[in-house]
């Protein structure tokens, strides 16, 4: 009977629907979490998943290839514009932690932020955030009257500008789930020790408008993954260990306004 059960399992798996996912390839823990969440949640629903890795690209290019269908799915902060262009899967992915922003700064510059306790204080010191053109944070920083430098093209140039002490970039706000990976790759920078800039928005998956059935398949799979605890287990395994190192509950929280129009 046991052997029969094994045979039936493999027969069913062999005949399961195959889902090809064209996903952008970034070699970090955050990407591993999103890829594994998609793969394991769909597998739990009985699908076979084939991930085709696409090269990393600027956000403007991601928008184009996601719209055309050359990219199947991507993770973005939820915005009204993206809701119009793509098919949103309405399951938050980072449990709100991507909206908890810490400041990556050049080594030795933390004293410039030592007296900042409020949004007004941060506005008053007139330090400029480095952000990539098209990022959600650009709109948030502008709404909160915080100076912004917008990098066109390769967003990773911002690390070089920051390390060089370029006058255009004083700090680079990064999510709690990603900043330690950034620091490991750029040891000439440091994390400002006291501040936490917070807004209420999370990453969600957006599916190409070419694939409405895929959107439904992913949403059903993620709902089940959230209910079963699969999503939380993957998050705790791949991302949360680093978040714990940041002592977020001991930081001075500055809440940023986010408009419903974007």
Keywords:
single chain, 262 residues, alpha/beta, D-Maltodextrin-Binding Protein, domain 2, five-stranded mixed β-sheet, three-stranded antiparallel β-sheet, 11 helices, 22% strand, Solute-binding protein family 3/N-terminal domain-containing protein
Molecular structure report:
With 262 residues, this protein is an alpha/beta fold. Helices cover 40% and strands 22% of the residues. The strands form 4 sheets. Strands 5, 8, 9, 10 and 12 form a 5-stranded mixed β-sheet that branches. A 3-stranded antiparallel β-sheet has the order 3-11-4. It has a two-stranded parallel sheet with strand order 1-2. Helix 2 (29-44) runs antiparallel to helix 10. The chain starts with a helix and ends in a 7-residue tail after the last strand. This is Solute-binding protein family 3/N-terminal domain-containing protein. It comes from Iodobacter fluviatilis.
Secondary structure elements and pairings:
Elements: H1 2-14, E1 18-24, H2 29-44, E2 48-54, H3 59-68, E3 73-77, H4 80-85, E4 87-89, E5 100-106, H5 119-125, E6 129-132, H6 136-143, E7 148-151, H7 157-163, E8 171-175, H8 179-185, E9 189-191, E10 195-198, E11 203-207, H9 212-228, H10 230-238, H11 240-244, E12 252-255
Parallel strand pairs: 1-2, 6-7, 10-12
Antiparallel strand pairs: 3-11, 4-11, 5-8, 5-9, 5-10
Helix pairs in contact: 2-9, 2-10
Protein name: Solute-binding protein family 3/N-terminal domain-containing protein
Organism: Iodobacter fluviatilis
């Amino acid at each position: 009977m046991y052997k029969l059960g094994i045979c039936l399992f493999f027969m069913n798996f062999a005949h399961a629907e195959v889902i090809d996912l064209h996903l952008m390839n970034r070699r970090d823990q955050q990407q591993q979490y999103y890829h594994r969440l998609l793969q394991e949640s769909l597998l739990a629903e009985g699908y076979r998943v084939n991930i085709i890795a696409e090269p990393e690209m600027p956000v403007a290019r991601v928008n184009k290839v996601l719209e055309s269908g050359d990219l199947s799915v991507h993770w973005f902060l939820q915005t009204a514009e993206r809701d119009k262009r793509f098919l949103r899967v309405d399951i938050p992915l980072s449990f709100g932690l991507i909206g908890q922003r810490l400041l990556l700064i050049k080594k030795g510059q933390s004293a410039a932020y030592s007296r900042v306790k409020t949004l007004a204080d941060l506005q008053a010191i007139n330090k400029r955030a480095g952000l990539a053109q098209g990022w959600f944070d650009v709109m948030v920083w502008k709404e909160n009257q915080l100076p912004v430098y917008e990098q066109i093209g390769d967003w990773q140039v911002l690390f070089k500008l920051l390390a060089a002490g370029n006058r255009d970039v004083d700090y680079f706000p990064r999510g709690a789930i990603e900043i330690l990976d950034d620091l490991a790759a750029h040891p000439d920078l440091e994390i400002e020790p006291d501040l936490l800039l917070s807004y209420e928005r999370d990453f969600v998956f957006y599916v190409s408008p070419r694939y409405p059935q895929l959107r439904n398949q992913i949403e059903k799979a993620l709902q089940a993954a959230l209910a079963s605890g699969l999503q939380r287990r993957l998050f705790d395994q791949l991302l949360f260990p680093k978040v714990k190192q940041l002592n977020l509950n001991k930081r001075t929280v500055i809440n940023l306004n986010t408009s419903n129009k974007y």
